[in-house]
Write a structure and sequence with these properties.
Distance between the termini: 61 Å
Shape: globular
Structural class: mainly beta
Number of strands: 21
Radius of gyration: 22 Å
Length: 349
């Protein structure tokens, strides 16, 4: 009997834990959003209205509300705390909204499940969305352990309607408020295999297509050693064209001791329709500018598949102020139309 009860408990616990992860819900929210008020009249609500209402369980919501609020943060399953005000350590799958753009209280927020609106709304790729006014329509229920809106049907951000599934029109870092660093040493050892890269202050931009840079790992059968890295591929991609970017945290170029960049790249299944390019990005005159770096060695057609090659020392001494290092991947979708590229051991110092 005790064993049976214990197994039942484990099964129930597993279901709860699985309720919110990178693609779903997380049970431990800052508050359950419960209450006894009716939250106002009709379908138009404030965040305060929804927090005062009885909260339907996950998957049990039946009422559709429209709320006008402000983007104040995001939910990041891989960070502690998971409810984050601001853009630092942001997650890509959810947003936090509040009645006040200056709100810092995670007990006064509603969580949005972004779904198909993720590319255009998430704060990882769109830090400039922070504190913008948002009008959003969705189903009211418990989500990530808090009051939430899911199954979004309409979003208006900063006065403009957002199209579901719309990609970022370009790489825009003008709204980034992350503190620049004076060194980077990233070996991708903490990435999740087959998941979009989610590293502190790194950014992904999907300009075309439905994919992005993902974490990957490979275990050598002879040595038993495992290596993690970042990978880009469009193999079997449903979109016709792909363009997506991997961008480092902001770097204080004036504070670099050696003013150099090094990294490794590998390639496989070479196709001339694909390319990997290296850029330095800077914010100037209200826009993000690009400078291509052609002095680095990037894995090419004649290099052995899945074998990392050194970039050599890339000189950064010509750059001043805040810069970003970025890798642009371009490819064709479909079966066997694209090169797979991998990046590892990025060092800026």
């Amino acid at each position: 009997m005790k064993k049976s009860k214990f197994l039942s408990f484990l099964a129930a616990f597993a279901l709860i834990f699985a309720a919110c992860n990178n693609v779903g819900d997380e049970p431990d929210g800052p508050g359950d959003g419960g209450g006894n008020g009716n939250g106002g009249n009709g379908t138009n609500k404030t965040v305060a209205d929804m927090l005062a209402m009885p909260l339907p369980d996950k998957g049990a919501g039946t009422e559709t509300f429209t709320v006008e609020a402000y983007v104040v943060g995001s939910y990041n399953f891989n960070h502690n705390p998971k409810f984050i005000i601001g853009t630092e350590n942001a997650g890509v799958d959810q947003l936090l909204i509040a009645d006040d753009p200056e709100n810092t209280d995670t007990y006064k927020v509603v969580v949005l499940k972004l779904g198909d609106y993720k590319p255009a709304l998430n704060l990882v790729n769109n830090p400039g969305n922070y504190k913008k006014k948002i009008v959003v329509t969705g189903t009211f229920e418990k989500y990530c352990g808090a009051a939430g809106l899911v199954d979004l049907t309409k979003v208006i951000l900063d006065g403009k309607e957002v199209t579901a599934g719309a990609q970022n029109s370009d790489v825009d870092l003008t709204g980034d408020t992350t503190t620049p660093v004076t060194e980077i040493n990233e070996d991708f050892s903490t990435v999740q295999s087959n998941k979009d890269i989610a590293l502190k202050d790194w950014k992904l931009f999907a300009v075309k297509g439905d994919r992005n840079w993902q974490g990957k790992e490979f275990t050598d059968k002879e040595s038993g050693t495992t290596n993690q890295y970042a990978q880009a591929s469009a193999h079997n991609g449903k979109a016709e064209d792909y363009e997506y970017w991997l961008v480092t945290p902001p770097v204080n170029a004036d504070g670099l001791k050696e003013k150099t960049l090094t990294f490794k790249t590998a390639q496989a299944y070479w196709q001339d329709t694909s390319s990997l390019k290296l850029f330095v990005l800077q914010n100037k005159d209200g826009k993000t500018t690009r400078t291509e770096i052609t002095t680095a060695k990037l894995a090419g057609k004649d290099d052995k598949q899945y074998t990392f090659v050194e970039s050599g020392n890339v000189d950064l001494s010509a750059y001043k102020g805040t810069i970003y290092i970025a890798w642009q991947y371009i490819a064709k979708g479909g079966a066997s139309n694209s090169t797979t590229f991998q990046i590892d051991d990025v060092v800026v110092k």
